[in-house]
Amino acid sequence: MDSENRLFGDQAMALVNEARRSNAAGTLSKYNDPLVRSVCREMRTLDSDLSRITADYEAEGSQVPPGVMAAASFYHVALRRNKRCVLAYQNHRLEKLRELYWGAAGSLAHLLGDQDIRSRLSPHEVDFLRSYNDIVQDFRADFEDVLDVVGDVTTPPKELNVIVRVVKDCGTIQTELGPIDFQRGQRFMVRRSDIEQLITQGFLEIVGK
Questions:
Q1: Distance CA 54, CA 49 (A)
Q2: pLDDT tens for each residue of 97-144
Q3: Contacts by 119-127 with C-beta closer than 8 Å and gap 24+?
Q4: Is residue 195 within 8 Å of 175, Cβ to Cβ?
Q5: Counting CB atoms within 10 angstroms of each CB, which of 77, 122, 144, 204 has the fewest?
């Protein structure tokens, strides 16, 4: 649709539809910075138009003609609608970012190290993840002796020890049994709590009990 035929709110609705498609697919699409900026420019235009048509009636007791009142209501409603659409789009993405963060067992380095995911984020979203990670790690430090708050608790483990196969090299990890050099293709029996994050992040997979 070209700019001459586009109506107020079309671009804002495109953001909402993009969020809906992303949610239905269970993925995070690339941040649509050009469209967000375009909607924000439209909002500034609406605000300017609203101020322009009401400038002559700001004095107390001014009689506002019905036509001006109708136009002012239109601009006001359109402005609020655009704002809600932008906020809905941003909130959808923040929810997805939190979902990805916990899916990576709270490993920010692992999450941002994935170039496919990193390429979909705006600089502000990267800053959000870093700030969010700081909050989680501060909270986590208060319970590290009794509970790993970033561990997967949706399915309680039936065994303390598990046999794992190394899917991707992840170097030497300190465990209760001592340091273990996890190299691709090798198998180890280890305490699950020592390598829970590596399982979540896809470095290891459970192959037996």
A1: 9
A2: 999 998 887 888 888 888 999 999 999 999 999 999 999 888 878 776
A3: 119/30, 120/28, 120/29, 120/30, 120/31, 121/31, 121/97, 122/31, 122/33, 125/31, 125/93, 125/94, 125/97
A4: yes
A5: 144
Q: Give the tokens for residue 136.
A: 């989680």
Closest by CA to 133, choosing from 95, 102, 160, 177, is: 102
pLDDT in tens, 16-36: 999 999 999 989 999 999 999
* Phi and psi torsions of 60, nearest 5°: -65, 135
Comparing C-alpha atoms, which of 193, 179, 101, 198 is closest to residue 146? Answer: 193
Q: How distant, in Å, are the alpha carbons of 27, 31, 56, 103, 127 from that of 120? A: 11, 6, 46, 17, 14
Q: Phi and psi at residue 169, in whole multiples of 5°? A: -55, 135
Query: Helix, strand, or coil here: 45?
Result: helix
